[in-house]
Specification:
about 10% strand; alpha/beta; about 900 residues; five-stranded mixed sheet; 34 helices; about 55% helix; 16 strands; globular
């Protein structure tokens, strides 16, 4: 009987109605979590918001608008407690759900898009956020109208993202559109909104160096904000301080001083005399007092005020906080002007750690401190060498660092993981750029299916990179130690140079009046100096040298042969070559016969010429090619894409060696004859490119020198892009391309190239243009890649990147060194040069590639097969980049 009663009670309980979680309850609980957050119980608010989200998911499903609404709140709580990475991943998942479940114009999808985009922008991923802001603003305008306040908030977010990305014109256009709309809206917050937008317009204009209009916008913003908040409200004071800095930078010191005086008393009341804001006001006052330098009547007071500002901020902030960087940098410049170079250098270094690095000020103060006896030479040299390596942020240096990491991982499975991570990063940039382009189209031209596909690819690519990085971190948590963080110490570099090596770096700053700095290093010591001339002077000498080398007839270039061109080049600029050496390398390096191998990292305009044609002694009107003191007479020369590349050869020795000595491509077919081009989606290369039959003999002789089998020579039709991509390229120690090299902007038939490329035979689905993008995707293990073609080192403009897109791409793909050219090469002399280099190495296997090149060059100068070949136009174009051993 008792069991029957218990069973009946259970059945009654099960039959009782279950309370359903309602939308009203969800909204109340979301509001409660936000109230907890505002009251300061941040962790409690996050925990409560997680519970609310879980309940909503159970009640309404993960894809409901109510659940997504609760998810946005939870993500905001995550960010509030500092879990930014978790919040971003969670928002990304919410966005994926929202886009899969709702149309572009659904309010909840717009809210999720904005929350995700704002998080991306705040966390340094503005490029990824931009298309989301564009989508949200356009959808809001369609639903709510252009002058709706919600729409204007979304457009404001879009404009700020444009500003972060440096798209000033686009940001300004949107801000002005918003300002016009707010002028038509009557709302309680209208004054504040108009003031905020005017302030953003002012800042954008100022960043665009439109100072008059920027100051006018500040003057428009401040009264509006003061009327809304009151003249002494912190938000008004903050904008007034920004206005004061703008006045000071524009040279309106008297008005800037008036702003400072009005701020001093107000800042003390609003923020307190020991606050960071009060320190900012003191900093501005110091700057207004210091205008005019050491001769300014209140310069000593300016020094004291700046020191006081820094002390106030140091008491409130972390020593490396970015708010300390600017005053420390300004203080360092003032100390330099006062002759206190040692202290100035210390503060410049502190500013660097706080994110306000100034290459120019660091170099000036460190050198001056040593000269004045205020700093030890060894300490300054160590810092200067570090700074030189940091200022070399070229893509070539990045490619070398990636290659070094793979070499340190022994080219095994972990190296493949590292390659996967870096490849994914590059692909991510491309996909995000595509999404940005399509999402910024007018609404009538938008393709939601294509956009969704791109977002899916972006998500999958990011997931792939995350998995690879996690596996790599698990196997090699010390990867940064393996490659040394991409920088060498002086003792490390000296050990790598050995007894016969020397390193010279010539570095240019980012401004016309930046100091040009040079450092030389051998096993025995280090020398450095600020060079005597400006960047424009070096660029002019380089241009004179390049102008004196004019070859068009019979070159491996994209342009048709010019039958009217002279068969011999113009007279060489001996004087400029000697002057350039004397005013650069010669300032820090003395030739004494002890050093045999010169490693050069020449940047800025000096990267646009091959260094072997510099002349080490004065010239006169009797100087000839045979009597000139070419740099190559004294040294084997290796060009470095970065100082760190010195270490690459050492790291590579532990890797797997290629099984075969050579893979070569010569004399490709540039017409459709005998080639199936139908699969290439267009015509083969026609008309513009001349055949290069002599390159077949060039490749044959190189193959003989390397004792390579016949099947590694791809000639004529076989020298195809499809064949290259189908081969196991990691099996070959030397890759050799004897063909036309093309630069961005070259015209081939009806096509104008958008990036550099090598011309190969087309067909089998390929167009015959092996572009830099395609090269970077190859997997190589080559000690040397020879690009026996034109313009594979740099473009025509002095001051560009130290390596062309082709060379950078091959380095990234896995080439440890490259032989590349600085200008269109004359084909017959190029054959002789290249075959001589490999013949020299075959005759003496202990000979380095750089020394073999040196011997081949000297033979062409002193014993040319053709008398014209003693001119640098013939023997100088090729440089060895990286240490091939």
């Amino acid at each position: 009987m008792m069991k029957l009663i218990a069973l009946l009670c259970l059945l009654v309980a099960l039959a009782a109605p279950v309370h359903a979680y309602t939308q009203a309850e969800l909204e109340q609980e979301v509001q409660h979590s936000e109230d907890m957050y505002r009251s300061g119980d941040i962790r409690g608010a996050q925990s409560y918001a997680q519970t609310v989200y879980d309940k909503a998911t159970a009640a309404f499903g993960p894809a409901s608008a109510d659940t997504l609404y609760a998810g946005i709140t939870l993500a905001n709580m995550m960010r509030g407690v500092g879990d930014d990475a978790q919040a971003l991943a969670f928002l990304e998942a919410l966005y994926g759900t929202a886009t899969a479940s709702f149309t572009q114009y659904a309010p909840i999808r717009i809210k999720v898009s904005v929350a995700y985009a704002n998080a991306l922008s705040d966390l340094g991923q503005a490029q990824k956020a931009l298309p989301l802001h564009v989508e949200a603003a356009a959808a809001a305008e369609t639903l709510l109208g252009a002058d709706n306040e919600t729409t204007l908030v979304f457009y404001f977010n879009l404009a700020k993202t444009y500003e972060i990305l440096g798209y000033g014109e686009q940001a300004l256009a949107v801000y002005r559109q918003i300002e016009g709309s707010y002028g038509r809206i009557a709302s309680p917050d209208n004054l504040m909104q108009r003031g905020n937008v005017a302030a953003q317009i002012a800042r954008t204009l100022y960043q665009m160096e439109n100072v008059p209009e920027g100051l006018a916008a500040y003057r428009r913003a401040l009264p509006l904000l003061a009327d809304y908040w009151g003249p002494n409200h912190p938000r008004v004071l903050e904008q007034k301080l920004v206005f004061g800095y703008a006045l000071w930078r524009s040279g309106q010191d008297d008005e800037a001083g008036e702003v400072v005086n009005s701020l001093l008393a107000s800042a003390t009341v609003a923020y307190g005399p020991n606050s960071v804001f009060y320190g900012d006001v003191l900093e501005l006052q110091a700057l207004t007092f210091s205008k005019g330098g050491l001769q300014a009547p209140r310069f000593a007071q300016a020094l004291s005020l700046m020191a006081q500002s820094i002390t106030l901020k140091e008491a409130q902030l972390d020593p490396n906080h970015n708010a300390l960087g600017r005053p420390m940098l300004e203080y360092a410049a003032m100390l330099r002007d006062a002759g206190q170079f040692g202290t100035a250098a210390q503060f410049a270094l502190k500013a660097e750690k706080a994110g306000a690095a100034s290459r120019d000020l660091l170099i000036q103060t460190l050198v001056a401190a040593v000269d004045a006896g205020q700093m030890a030479d060894s300490d300054a040299a160590a810092e200067l060498f570090r700074i030189l390596q940091q200022s070399s942020s070229s893509e070539a240096g990045f490619a070398s660092l990636q290659l070094a990491a793979r070499a340190a991982l022994n080219d095994g499975a972990d190296a493949a993981l590292f390659r996967q991570v870096t490849d994914s990063a590059q692909r991510q940039s491309g996909l995000e750029a595509q999404l940005l382009e399509v999402s910024m189209r007018p609404l009538a031209e938008r393709d939601s299916v294509h956009e969704a596909a791109l977002r899916g690819q972006i998500a999958e690519n990011a997931s792939t990179a995350t998995r690879a990085q996690a596996a790599l971190d698990a196997n090699h948590p010390n990867i940064a130690d393996l490659i040394g963080g991409g920088a060498l110490s002086i003792p490390e570099a000296q050990a790598l140079l050995g007894a016969e090596g020397a390193l010279v770096v010539v570095d240019f700053g980012g401004y016309r009046d930046s100091p040009v700095f040079a450092m030389a290093m051998t096993e025995a010591g280090v020398g450095y100096t600020i060079l005597p001339d400006w960047a424009d002077d070096y660029a002019a000498a380089v241009e004179q040298i390049r102008t004196s080398i004019s070859l068009k007839l019979g070159t491996r270039a994209a342009a048709p042969l010019d039958a009217s061109a002279a068969a011999t080049p113009t007279p060489f600029a001996f004087l400029d070559a000697a002057l350039l050496y004397d005013r650069s390398i010669g300032q820090v390096f003395a030739i004494n016969g002890k050093r045999k191998h010169l490693y050069l990292d020449l940047r800025g305009p000096m990267g646009a010429i091959p260094p072997q044609l510099l002349i080490t002694k004065p010239t006169d009107d009797k100087t000839t090619e045979q009597t000139a003191s070419w740099l190559v007479r004294d040294f084997a020369i290796t060009v470095l894409p970065s100082v760190y590349a010195l270490k690459l050869a050492t790291l590579a020795k532990a890797g797997t060696k290629p099984a075969l000595p050579l893979l070569g491509f010569a004399n490709p077919v540039y017409t459709a004859t005998g080639v199936d081009v139908s699969a290439a989606g267009g015509q083969a290369l026609r008309g513009s490119l001349t055949p290069l039959p002599e390159t077949e003999g060039e490749l044959l002789q190189v193959a003989m020198a390397l004792k390579a089998p016949a099947d590694v020579q791809r000639l004529g039709v076989a020298a195809s892009e499809a064949a290259l991509k189908g081969l196991p390229l990691t099996d070959y120690g030397v890759l050799y391309f004897a063909t036309h090299g093309l630069v961005s902007g070259d015209a081939v038939g009806d096509e104008v190239l958008g990036e550099p490329a090598l011309a190969l035979t087309g067909g089998d689905g390929e167009d015959g243009l092996l572009t830099a993008t395609e090269i970077a995707k190859l997997k190589l293990n080559a000690d040397l890649v020879v690009l026996s073609a034109c313009n594979t080192a740099v473009g025509d403009a002095p001051g560009g990147q130290a390596l062309s897109g082709l060379a950078r791409a091959f380095t990234y793909a896995g080439a440890r060194s490259l032989m590349v050219s600085h200008w269109p090469v004359e084909s017959r002399s190029a054959v002789r040069m290249m075959t001589d280099i490999f013949d020299h190495r075959a005759g003496d296997p202990t000979l380095s590639a750089a020394e073999a090149q040196r011997e081949a060059i000297l033979s062409m100068i002193d014993k040319p097969q053709n008398p014209a070949w003693s001119h640098p136009a013939y023997w100088a174009p090729f440089v060895l980049v990286g240490d091939a051993g």
